[in-house]
């Protein structure tokens, strides 16, 4: 605008004309938009995404009138196939679930699970995906309450022994149970004492599985699960020791020496506890799964045990066993972890003589 005579310049008039034209165009668009979008949701204009542009060569340009486009049909076919597969999987899983339960119940009966509790525990353990899943199911089912948890321990040990090869699943599940229910530690001890009495009737496979299970539990945190005192019910006499007991102890010691460091071995073999043993008493023969009343007697007798049990006799017996059975083992070569742990354990056992 000219400041002299208050009149606009020519270039300003041109700019004003172009602005007016643009305003008219925008006004026409605003006027036409409501009629074209009538009956539609706001914002239903074409929304071309970056992926649509990238796939334009293969799927077509759906936003152009008359252009071919196969993306919708392709996606719908793929979705239909995925839905069909998922429906088939669901039908298969739903159909197999009752069959799986029937097989577990039949297997439980064949394994002498003669009560509802034991059958339920067996099905939970054998039907779980991992030890965390099994533990959570046992807690939800109320199977880890006092006294009820005894069946869990006995079924767990029994299943471990029946496996074709040792499965650490049972050891980790036993640890979780012991952490949750502290009374399970003593139940584990009594269960192993029962197995020692029947060891001569077990196949070698079962003996090996139970030896590795015990090694895993004894090698745990500072005797939190089981300690070396659990072996006190074994007769270590070279003239009287049973063949299966010798195999059991050899596998137990070998597994322990190979899976633990030297500090842990020292802690295991120097462990002293009054809870490791209970007064010896003669009992009539009984079935592995029918010893709950006798277990109560063991718990009562535990209170009469001496306040300090140094396990000295046990260590003397283990020293003899180590020298007789493991010193000549091919794994006992200098420089190996087995040799270092064997030497440390033997030294501790011999110091008690």
Q: How many DSSP-defined strands?
A: 0
Mean pLDDT: 78
Form type: elongated
Q: Residue share in helices?
A: 55-70%
Largest sheet: none
Count the DSSP helices. Answer: 15
How would you classify the helix and strand content by structural class?
mainly alpha
Q: Tell me the β content.
A: under 5%
Note poorly predicted spans: 273-286, 301-308
The string of secondary-structure elements, in order, is HHHHHHHHHHHHHHH
Q: Measured on Cα atoms, how large is the radius of gyration? A: 38 Å
State the distance separating the first and last CA atoms.
117 Å
Keyword list:
353 residues; mainly alpha; 15 helices; elongated
Report on this structure.
This protein is mainly α and 353 residues long. It has helices at residues 10-36, 50-54, 56-59, 71-110, 116-126, 131-140, 149-162, 168-180, 184-198, 204-218, 243-259, 262-269, 292-302, 312-326, 337-350. Helix 4 (71-110) packs antiparallel against helix 5 (116-126). The radius of gyration is 38 Å and the shape is elongated.
């Amino acid at each position: 605008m000219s400041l002299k005579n208050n009149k606009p310049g020519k270039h300003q008039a041109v700019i004003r004309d172009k602005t007016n034209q643009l305003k008219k165009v925008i006004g026409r668009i605003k006027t036409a938009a409501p009629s074209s979008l009538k009956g539609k949701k706001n914002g239903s204009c074409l929304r071309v995404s970056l992926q649509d542009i990238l796939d334009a060569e293969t799927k077509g340009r759906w936003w152009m009138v008359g252009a071919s486009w196969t993306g919708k049909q392709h996606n719908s076919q793929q979705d239909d196939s995925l839905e069909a597969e998922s429906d088939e999987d669901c039908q298969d899983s739903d159909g197999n679930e009752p069959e799986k339960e029937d097989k577990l119940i039949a297997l439980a009966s064949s394994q002498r699970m003669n009560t509802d509790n034991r059958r339920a525990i067996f099905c939970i353990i054998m039907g779980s995906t991992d030890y965390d899943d099994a533990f959570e199911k046992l807690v939800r089912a109320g199977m880890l309450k006092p006294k009820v948890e005894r069946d869990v321990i006995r079924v767990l040990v029994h299943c471990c022994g029946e496996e074709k090869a040792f499965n650490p699943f049972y050891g980790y599940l036993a640890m979780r149970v012991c952490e949750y229910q502290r009374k399970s530690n003593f139940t584990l001890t009594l269960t192993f004492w029962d197995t020692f009495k029947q060891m001569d009737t077990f196949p070698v496979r079962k003996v090996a599985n139970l030896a590795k299970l015990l090694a895993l539990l004894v090698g745990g945190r500072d005797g939190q699960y089981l300690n070396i005192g659990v072996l006190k019910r074994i007769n270590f006499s070279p003239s009287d020791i049973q063949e299966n007991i010798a195999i059991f102890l050899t596998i137990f010691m070998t597994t322990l020496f190979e899976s633990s460091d030297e500090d842990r071995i020292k802690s295991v073999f120097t462990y002293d506890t009054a809870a490791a043993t209970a007064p010896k008493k003669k009992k009539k023969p009984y079935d592995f799964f029918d010893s709950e009343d006798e277990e109560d007697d063991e718990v009562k007798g535990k209170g009469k045990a001496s306040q300090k049990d140094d396990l000295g006799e046990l260590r003397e017996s283990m020293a003899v066993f180590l020298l007789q059975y493991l010193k000549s083992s091919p794994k006992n070569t200098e420089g190996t972890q087995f040799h270092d742990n064997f030497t440390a354990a033997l030294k501790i056992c011999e110091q008690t003589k």
